[in-house]
Specification:
eight-stranded antiparallel beta barrel; 46% strand; 8 strands; globular; mainly beta
């Protein structure tokens, strides 16, 4: 007996739902700068788009008394699936937390320049996940397709020391497991 079109549709829908809350996308690592490619043996598990802000603070340069710069403080972003559903958040740590409560933190391994006016591409090696869920087994995260997020262009001097400025940004985060 041949399955009906309705049966095939239900099976396809259930299969899509079983992939987890984040949309699966293809990432062509061979086309990325070598510094931010994931190591061999890693499998793409999910992709989410982060939309949020990066906070910078005007601070005196550590190695240059009397000179000031905008210093990175922290990011905060909502993570969205391909259909724009909120599937988690990204915040200081750095921490990526799925809507199911599972989360990972990590350390930057490498960066690679992006187009002017955009924060760099990034590769992060994660620590083991906390909680059980979408982040379980994630070992690397790439930040790709960045838009905005660079330090403010306004003056940073003694008069503005301590001032904080939020800058809008967007990036795709690709999550891998080994």
């Amino acid at each position: 007996m041949k399955p009906s079109l309705a049966t095939i549709g239900v099976v396809a829908l259930l299969s899509a739902c079983s992939m987890g809350p984040m949309t699966m996308n293809k990432v062509d690592n061979a086309a990325l700068p070598e510094a931010v490619r994931v190591p061999a043996g890693q499998t793409l598990r999910m992709v989410a788009t982060g939309v949020g802000e990066i906070t910078y603070e005007c601070r005196e340069k550590a190695a240059a008394a009397g000179q000031y710069e905008w210093a990175f403080v922290a990011p905060v972003a909502a993570l969205h699936a391909g259909d724009k559903r909120n599937v988690g958040k990204y915040y200081a740590g750095p921490t990526w937390e799925a809507a199911d409560g599972s989360k990972v933190t990590g350390k930057q391994v490498a960066v690679s320049p992006a187009a002017p006016g955009n924060i760099p591409l990034q590769l992060v090696k994660t620590d083991p996940a906390m909680g059980s869920g979408a982040m379980t087994g994630v070992t690397y995260i790439q930040r790709l397709n960045t838009k905005g997020g660079v330090a403010p262009s306004m003056a940073c001097d003694a008069a503005s020391k301590g001032k904080r400025q939020q800058v809008a940004y967007e990036a795709d985060y690709a999550f891998y497991g080994g």
